[in-house]
Write a structure and sequence with these properties.
By secondary structure, the protein is an all-alpha fold. Helices cover 54% and strands 0% of the residues. The protein has one domain (2-43). The termini are far apart.
Length: 46
Amino acid sequence: MSDGKLIDFFHGDERMMYGGLFFSLCIFIPAIFQLSMRMKRADGNP
């Protein structure tokens, strides 16, 4: 049953797969937001 789908990482449990995706987004979205805040253009003032 190893056909390379995402659900194979969660041993066929669809609920665990969706939970893992949800919590991954809970980490990824704030990380992107924080990165965008830190990568703002410098305005030239010290």
